[in-house]
Amino acid sequence: MKGPVVVLYDIADEERRALVRTALRPFADRFQQSGWYIPPVAGFTATRVTAGLSSLILPSDRVAAYQPCPRCAQDMRWLPTDAWRPSDTPAGIFMSHR
């Protein structure tokens, strides 16, 4: 299912947190210290995201990836309304217009 993926984590070790940030940065928007939004255009699923991050964390770390259904994604709301908004193309994704 294509749709956005919201990733949240609680990782105590700064090195492992940095690895996860580095892995997410190219295709996700950071909306909170440990919260990331992956837009549908990236083509990821929650399963694929957690599989990709699994080698970077330890059992004591917590990583959650939520992928709302397309209808639920339309109902997502962000506060404050004049602050961060989800983008269809985060800064790390380069779209080719050929």
Keywords:
globular, 4-stranded antiparallel beta sheet, metal-binding, 98 residues, nuclease, single chain, alpha+beta, magnesium, Virulence_VapD/CRISPR_Cas2, CRISPR_associated_Cas2, 4 strands
Task: Spell out the blueprint of helices and strands.
Elements: E1 5-10, H1 14-24, E2 29-32, E3 35-38, H2 46-53, E4 62-66, H3 70-74
Antiparallel strand pairs: 1-3, 1-4, 2-3
Mean pLDDT: 86
Q: Which stretches of 5+ consecutive residues score pLDDT under 50?
A: none
Strand content: 15-25%
What is the straight-line distance between the termini?
Answer: 26 Å
> What is the count of β-strands?
4
Major beta sheet, strand line-up: 2-3-1-4
Cα radius of gyration in angstroms: 14 Å
Q: Main beta sheet, described?
A: 4 strands, antiparallel
Helix-strand sequence: EHEEHEH
State the shape.
globular
Residues in helix, %: 10-25%
Number of helices: 3
Structural class: alpha+beta
Keywords: Antiviral defense, Endonuclease, Hydrolase, Magnesium, Metal-binding, Nuclease
Cofactor: Mg(2+)
Family: Belongs to the CRISPR-associated endoribonuclease Cas2 protein family.
InterPro entries: CRISPR_associated_Cas2, Virulence_VapD/CRISPR_Cas2
Model description:
This protein is an alpha+beta fold and 98 residues long. It has helices at residues 14-24, 46-53, 70-74; strands at residues 5-10, 29-32, 35-38, 62-66. The protein has a 4-stranded antiparallel β-sheet, covered by helices on one side. It is globular. 22% of the residues are buried. The mean pLDDT is 86.
In brief, what are we looking at here?
The protein has 98 residues and is of the alpha+beta class. The chain is built from three helices and four strands, in the order βαββαβα. 22% of the residues are buried.
